[in-house]
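2.7 Reproducibility. Because tokenized structures are sensitive to small changes in the input, we list the exact sequence used for ERAD-associated E3 ubiquitin-protein ligase component HRD3A, including any N-terminal residues retained from the expression construct. No trimming or masking was applied before prediction.
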Amino acid sequence: MPELTSTPKLIICLLILSLYPISLKARPFILVLSQDDIKDSAASTDDESAADWDDFGDSESMTEENLDPGSWSPVFEPSIDPGAINGSYYITISKMMSAVTNGDVRVMEEATSEVESAAMEGDPPARSVLGFLYGMGMMRERNKGKAFLYHHFAAEGGNIQSKMAVAYTYLRQDMHDKAVKLYAELAEIAVNSFLISKDSPVIEPIRIHNGAEENKGALRKSRGEDDEAFQILEYQAQKGNAGAMYKIGLFYYFGLRGLRRDRTKALMWFSKAADKGEPQSMEFLGEIYARGAGVERNYTKALEWLTHAARQQLYSAYNGIGYLYVKGYGVEKKNYTKAKEYFEKAADNEEAGGHYNLGVMYYKGIGVKRDVKLACKYFLVAANAGHQKAFYQLAKMFHTGVGLKKNLHMLVSYAYFFIEPLRSSSILEANGNCISFVFAATALYKLVAERGPWSSLSRWALESYLKGDVGKAFLLYSRMAELGYEVAQSNAAWILDKYGEGSMCMGESGFCTDAERHQCAHSLWWQASEQGNEHAALLIGDAYYYGRGTQRDYERAAEAYMHARSQSNAQAMFNLGYMHEHGQGLPLDLHLAKRYYDQALEVDPAAKLPVTLALTSLWIRKNNADSFLVRLIDALPEVYPRVEAWVENVFMEEGNVTILTLFVCLLTVLYLRERQRRNAVQAAGDVALPNQHNEHAAAPFN
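Resulting structure tokens (single pass, no recycling of outputs):
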């Protein structure tokens, strides 16, 4: 258990990178708090705002429809009857899905008109969808103002996804005071969907591309029951392997690895594994019975299964038992002393949930003397282990200032992308590294909120993509993109670039034109780059440098390349070196150019050839200024596209290719015949020479 006693200068590092262990594009930053930053208990006990805080929440299992009104889950989850909720709305959503799947513009226009009619009547889910259509420019003129207006009214009507969209809009505009309020509400809803006894596993949207190429490795692991690895695991489970049974149960319980969520199958596999003594399955059975997830709620059974798991030294199960004693569920009465003992057992064995629960007890003064300073330390330890609820509690502390000194500014070591959008914001101090409470709270709330039930959109998008339904995948990823999910933004943009017309992208009056598609992809890549996607930043730089889908702007290209460089992107470093060498968007500086070229080679040894050529060009430019060679090098960027276009138009045309192929074959035949003739002549000469020699040698003897 980490040391929690007072020290002269206790430094606790909060690594939010641990939130996303699966992601290669995680958004890391470090919060560094000293002992003096945390208020003493005496200074905090009069803070009445603490009384309004949640303690341990409740085990009430709410459906996704209750947590996320207007969710599209009834369209994709066969266990849900859309007609029993809002039949006409879901029929319209189904039409939209069918339209993008089949490329039917007429059906899409019909669905859009139905959505608009329902929105005019004040239906919040319809208003949310109409805001999405205006924001993306689908069957309506792209209009961000109207999109925000419809999302605003939908959010006022209780639509959760519109609240996500509005909060993200506020965040992008540095309106953190407004963003933090919405993200706080959304994070609370997300936390209510989490597990009781332990933290939920990381469920993150899969990145379907790796740079410019398809991410075949990740996609191969997400094919659900068709995946060979899953079939092997299922075979092992059927043969009696308890570990395999638990894993399959976990996949079905959360809908992981491309599987549809199926609580019935999960319960079956957990039960089989538990019968064989598998402790994690026992714990999940306790969770299922406590929440009534797919079964009738039974706290007595929940306690039994959690106790069995704890006896197998599964320390996270102690949290579930402690929770039941705090609430008085399945036991004779509430017993805070026993609850604290179980939480301490979990914490002593480095179980993050134990630290979190002890933090709640000390913060609320439940069964112990209230101690905000100690509570804050427990929350920090839990958050450092990636515990989502601890992030939520810390976000609330930063939001309200409870438990932390009012004049505290957190020293934050941010990735460049997280700082850069705030450079013009008043919340940044002169050194550019100190962030106010409100931004820290916003960032933490957003990370928790993105794990809410609305993230199921990513599961359906991936499923559609794997089935070859690119149009539906693009629509779903686009919906997630406006909610602020970076992975969805890059996935949607990549689909547009990769599949072009095959993306089934709908524009203002039918299928997207090339200009609309470029504009949409540019906007999505830009949003992804703001959230730290280096590939997106590189593509934005290329767009501005070459004028693809936008006006050529070397200065903005340089900004984007700087963005990508901060993520150690070798291509961006090379591009910055080239721009310094030629004075394009950056000052002409050959020394800086060489530095960037050298950095590119250090980061990526595969860049040796282009870097060597660039350094050669740099040497020629430095030692032979205004020479013919320099002018030739400078002319290459203009000449190359013309040569490439000429090759494309002349050589690559189908008829010309056939003629050229025949011509090359003819030349090859003539060359081979000529070489054969020469070899024959040479061989004849070699035979004749010895005969001549013999004749000369024999002459004196005749």
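The longest strand covers residues 29-33.
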